[in-house]
Amino acid sequence: MNNKKMLDFQTIAVDFDGTLCYSKWPELGQPNQALIEYLQEWKRNGNKLILWTCRAGEALSKAVEWCREQNLEFDAVNDNLPEIIEFYGHNSRKISCDYYIDDRMLLPENAKA
């Protein structure tokens, strides 16, 4: 895979609880409709999505199914995209993406020591 192909899309890694879904783990809640519509448009434009959540096992399966019910499909779940794994020749523990969307985001300029 060449570098040009790597630039043909961008990737968002998005959290589930408190971000896509207004929930209190392990329950499921109401959808963040504005974010879901944004991500659907992102995919329609040829970009990639990763569901990046602390959920595992049955709780993760329920979250993925909940997303499908919202017409939101991911290119990877708690993992790097296959294209990224192939490009680097290994699967890093750190998710490779262009943007992270998470309710716990902290910007360095707003951080207090």
TrEMBL record:
The lineage's top-level taxon is Bacteria
Q: Which Gene3D superfamilies match?
A: HAD superfamily/HAD-like (3.40.50.1000)
According to UniProt, the name of this protein is Hydrolase
